[in-house]
Amino acid sequence: MRKMPLTQAPEPAWLVARAQLALHYLERLLADSAWAHRASGLRGSLWRALALPPEQRDDGYFARLAPLVETAFWLLEQAAREIPDPRPGQTA
Predict the structure, then answer these.
(1) Contact 71, 1 (CB under 8 A)
(2) Percent of the chain predicted with pLDDT > 90
(3) pTM value?
(4) Which of 53, 62, 69, 80 has its CB surrounded by the most CB atoms within 10 Å?
């Protein structure tokens, strides 16, 4: 999967908030979407990562969480591209 890397290490609280947001959106993909099947493993990985108590989160935790978040938002972008335009014939 092609994804855009983070340009610098994000703040831990920001990264956790982005992971929660990504998980929220991944859970709402339509079940019949081809991307929903791909998202299922990623959803589980994010869920397990976020379930870890904050006191057990070290630098390695955030190093593993960052690529999951990047991949999640890439996958959501790909899924959004398949949503048909409700206004056929109109250009933005």
Answers:
(1) yes
(2) 55
(3) 0.78
(4) 69
Residue 69 to residue 20: CA distance in whole angstroms: 9
Q: Quick: pLDDT tens for 17-29.
A: 999 999 999 998 8
Instruction: Give the whole-angstrom CA distance, residue 76 versus residue 36.
Output: 9
The position carrying tokens 């990623």 is 42
Q: Which of 82, 68, 71 is nearest to 29 (CA)?
A: 82
pLDDT band for position 91 (50/70/90)? low
CB 42 within 8 A of CB 72: yes
**Buried (b) or exposed (e) across 2-36, using 16+ Cβ within 10 A?**
eeeeeeeebeeeebbebbeebbeebeebeeeeebb
